[in-house]
Amino acid sequence: MSSRVLIVDDHAFIRKGVRSILRSSSEWELCGEADNGTDAIRLSDALNPQVIIMDISMPGLNGIEATRAIRRNHPETKVILLTLHENDEMVKSAFRAGARGYLLKGDAEKELMTALSEVLQERAYVSPRIDRQAISSVFEEMNHES
After folding, report:
1. How far is 75 from 67, CA to CA, in rounded Å?
2. C-alpha angle with apex 17: 47 to 21, nearest 5 degrees?
């Protein structure tokens, strides 16, 4: 059975790129798309995706705020934040909000399938270019909470 995925990004060409990567495998079913955090919350309630691939920087409600709200209502939903932001504080904020993955847009073409698999197996995913040591304290916090 395929896993349901919701794509959220304010740029249509990013959504199209993610869509084309997902189509390459029958493992993933695209259940919807949104271009802002408010619609992401609404669609996560309506569509109940297993995974949400969401941009951080969007007009209105950003991806971190939307992740926090979605995880409050749907703790089983996995969120992978897809972003250009490489700074450690942004990564820490993402995981503290409940994200399970942090994927840089520059890594998405070759890493998206890996990120999806990792989060579905209850593991955290971080893009290879992010320094895991710098954010290890957040993973320790997450392990103590579970």
Report:
1. 10
2. 75
Three-state secondary structure call for residue 98: coil
Domain of 102, CATH number, reads 3.40.50.2300
pLDDT in tens, 84-117: 999 888 999 999 999 999 999 999 999 999 999 9
> Residue type at 89?
E
Sheet of 125-126, strand order: 28-34, 3-8, 51-55, 78-83, 101-104, 125-126
Residue bearing tokens 């890594």: 107
Residue 144 neighbours by CB under 8 Å, 6+ apart: none
Place of tokens 């290879």: 128
**Spatial distance between the Cα atoms of 50 and 7, rounded to a whole number of angstroms:** 11
Average pLDDT of the chain?
93
Rg (CA), the chain: 14
| Lookup result for tokens 């503290």 | 96
CA–CA dist 88, 109 (Å, integer)? 22
* Structural domains of the chain, count: 1
